[in-house]
From TrEMBL:
SUPFAM superfamilies, sorted: P-loop containing nucleoside triphosphate hydrolases (SSF52540)
Species name: Aristophania vespae
GO MF annotation list: ATP hydrolysis activity; DNA binding
Protein name as catalogued: AAA family ATPase
Pfam families tied to this protein: AAA_22, Phage-MuB_C
Length: 321
């Protein structure tokens, strides 16, 4: 290895060592991101690698360039606000609290982007014996659903014919709450199994889903065979779109202070996806502003944040004049 190559390698090693110190990078992280074996990274950075140093240096340089580019990009992204207890979120929390304290069943339905899921996650993080399961087409059968619940609540029986008995034993006298998100995916048989779990274990249940879920459960009240499911629901809450106060508080949390942007932001927040779409648009808009060295948003940033993400134009009435 000639002196010029040695010098280049030494400079590369010094730069990586500096990043390790400044950013708290571990060998495991470098290994995971670079694809270089951990022992090789360690030896290369110590100047003791006996293999093809030029090949490893090439891989390490490629990783270093990618790492710096990613962090430069992250510097232009504004961190999304922590969970905010919006007015709609307070309604969802009220239902969770009631269902858990009363050992009853609650149902939340509504449009996407009304903070249902994030509020459920927040509730489970901040309350003892509250668990959340996200339903899907793969959990339509009662057995699959019960086995998923058993894993999440750490039941003594996680599969097989005894899973229901194990869940009852695990959950009885816990005063717990089981939240099922995306409950519209569940079969009627699965909903009835959950009703049975509510009965026999005495825990609260909360079903979260889209608007058709409510009509489906209400329709069960007309059927003798499924009437027990409908009759056990103790509280209903619904939201077809975010409240204006939800949008105002979310806008404030993102640090938007220019009132001239309100019309644009409220229109976006009232679309399908609501609060989620507003946050995604604002994050993109701040990225655009940051790329130009600005911290304050302009209407053009909001417009670009929407049109570049959605590939559709804003209504003419919202464009700047």
């Amino acid at each position: 290895m000639n002196e010029e190559v040695k010098t280049a390698h030494s400079a590369l090693i010094a730069e990586i060592r500096k990043l390790q110190k400044e950013d708290g990078l571990t060998l495991s992280q470098i290994t995971r991101e670079s694809g270089i074996a951990k022992s090789t990274v360690s030896q290369f950075l110590s100047g003791q690698y006996g293999g093809n140093n030029e090949k490893i240096a090439e891989q390490a340089q490629k990783w270093l360039d990618t790492y710096k580019a990613r962090h430069q990009l992250n510097g232009k992204l504004r961190t999304e606000p922590e969970f905010i207890l919006l007015p709609s979120s307070k309604q969802w929390v009220q239902l969770f609290e009631y269902a858990q304290m009363a050992g009853d069943i609650g149902v939340i339905t509504g449009a996407p982007g009304t903070s249902k899921t994030v509020t459920a996650e927040y509730y489970c993080k901040t309350n003892s014996n509250a668990w959340m399961v996200t339903a899907s087409s793969s959990l339509r059968s009662p057995r699959a659903l019960l086995e998923e619940i058993a894993e999440i609540v750490d039941s003594p029986v996680k599969s097989g014919s005894g899973v229901m008995r194990g869940l009852i034993k695990r959950l009885r006298n816990t005063g717990g709450l089981l939240i099922i998100d995306e409950a519209q995916h569940l079969s009627t048989e699965s909903l009835d199994q959950l009703r049975g779990l509510n009965d026999q274990a005495g825990i609260g249940l909360a079903w979260i889903g889209n608007e058709p879920l409510r009509g489906r459960i209400e329709g069960m009240g007309q059927s003798k065979s499924n009437a027990q499911i409908f009759s056990r629901v103790g509280m209903w809450k619904a939201r077809t779109k975010p409240l204006k106060t939800d949008l105002e508080q979310l806008k404030d949390a993102w640090g938007v202070t220019n009132p001239e942007l309100d019309k644009l932001l409220f229109w976006i927040g009232s679309r399908e996806g609501g609060l989620r779409e507003l946050s995604k648009t604002l994050r993109f808009a701040y990225f655009i502003a940051g790329s130009e060295g600005r911290t304050e948003l302009q209407a053009s940033d909001i417009e670009a944040g929407w049109t570049q993400r959605k590939s559709s134009s804003l209504p003419n009435s919202l464009h700047r004049h």
